[in-house]
């Protein structure tokens, strides 16, 4: 444990301790808000970055959780200050929350840098909020602890378990196929999502919070606690106590994160059967921490660690069941031989200390390598594919794909926008079969912009009525972590910047070989050269706004989709105070 710091070493003292006019003004204005001088003087200042919003049901309870954090901070002798930040809540935000992940990362970093903050508790949970808040905190590198929003309560409809996202897509297909009625659909709408909290499946939200839990950035097991469980505000309060201790210890993200801690996160990622979206976020986070992490590192871990958590979309249970079965700590204990147990965590203990004795109470929910949900021979959490369609890589979750499509050749039908695709696919006269490869391009970070979750491309209605529920689908966009199917995603470079996907034409044969790790178009090289010479980029959609900035500075999917001016570890000085 580090030596306890002196009060004079804290950042906040530059604002509050001086005897000049500026110090007077800082103390004066704090008292203007009703604070007694002794309530903030001589105490570590704890920033509570809160992404609560009435447009983000996943975060609807975070206003109350901020109060619980404050309770813990006061108890530990700190001074808590709540600072609202952009709430990148899925579903409501258009065109995609991914467009705003870097916005929140920048906001978090600058909120912490520009204010007299010594340590931070980060309140988030919905998909992009976890990587965004941590990207900002990693770059700022002051003591920080992540307080995950937690999954919503289990859902059930007419006696069947229903998971947010997963069953939305499932029942939408059944509605389009004519197997359920419009009345059924409306009834389902009001029953499937029963409480505040993130998706109760292993979508991107629980994938990312579990990964950062395994990396040591949350209190041990915090990611598994359901949002409305009474243990959740108790955990939030404990975050408040612990962050004050971390400030005195000067325990920063840079003391916790290295390549081994990221690999620990990958073990959790693969055992959970987590979202393909994590592949983008982890590269971005690692680059902020100065850690070399690639898609190939993820593929290598996916080849060692099978899907072992029996939760939708890969399994049969929901996140509340996972929590009652022992949660993330029990899962990590079963896979401890894949972990570096010596890595430090925010509670001051090692990962090994934190998972020692973590029992599993339901071996059907949390399985081991001897009885996985999906054996490695059947599929993996993450496959990385390369070829003349994706020279820099594409990803897919083969564990969620149909085995018969893992080696497939079929003619492409290519769409340049989701609007045209959605209108065209349901044309009963469309020449399309189960063997056709549906392709959507211009859905990447620059092309969309923001790389939306458009990649779980719809099955044509006429094929749904024939019983077809999966096809090979390719996109330079992303897919919701709650979804499933033979979907190849994150094709890089994307079509909008001249990637090979831009050169594919309807009727071209596409060859997928997951075992070989390849994705190719069977087009003569000379023809590809001819098409490239004729290709021209579309004019930029945005001439101003944040989206214009995004298109100018975002990296490709395999590089993490971070901004070029935010990525890396260059030191940014604290602000001058005059």
UniProtKB/TrEMBL annotation:
<dbReference type="GO" id="GO:0051536">
    <property type="term" value="F:iron-sulfur cluster binding"/>
</dbReference>
<dbReference type="InterPro" id="IPR042096">
    <property type="entry name" value="Dihydro-acid_dehy_C"/>
</dbReference>
<keyword id="KW-0479">Metal-binding</keyword>
<feature type="domain" description="Dihydroxy-acid/6-phosphogluconate dehydratase C-terminal">
    <location>
        <begin position="365"/>
        <end position="561"/>
    </location>
</feature>
<dbReference type="GO" id="GO:0004160">
    <property type="term" value="F:dihydroxy-acid dehydratase activity"/>
</dbReference>
<comment type="similarity">
    <text>Belongs to the IlvD/Edd family.</text>
</comment>
<dbReference type="InterPro" id="IPR037237">
    <property type="entry name" value="IlvD/EDD_N"/>
</dbReference>
<dbReference type="InterPro" id="IPR000581">
    <property type="entry name" value="ILV_EDD_N"/>
</dbReference>
<keyword id="KW-0411">Iron-sulfur</keyword>
<dbReference type="InterPro" id="IPR020558">
    <property type="entry name" value="DiOHA_6PGluconate_deHydtase_CS"/>
</dbReference>
<dbReference type="InterPro" id="IPR052352">
    <property type="entry name" value="Sugar_Degrad_Dehydratases"/>
</dbReference>
<dbReference type="Pfam" id="PF24877">
    <property type="entry name" value="ILV_EDD_C"/>
</dbReference>
<feature type="domain" description="Dihydroxy-acid/6-phosphogluconate dehydratase N-terminal">
    <location>
        <begin position="43"/>
        <end position="354"/>
    </location>
</feature>
<keyword id="KW-0408">Iron</keyword>
<protein>
    <submittedName>
        <fullName>Dihydroxy-acid dehydratase</fullName>
        <ecNumber>4.2.1.9</ecNumber>
    </submittedName>
</protein>
<dbReference type="GO" id="GO:0046872">
    <property type="term" value="F:metal ion binding"/>
</dbReference>
<keyword id="KW-0456">Lyase</keyword>
<dbReference type="InterPro" id="IPR056740">
    <property type="entry name" value="ILV_EDD_C"/>
</dbReference>
<dbReference type="Pfam" id="PF00920">
    <property type="entry name" value="ILVD_EDD_N"/>
</dbReference>
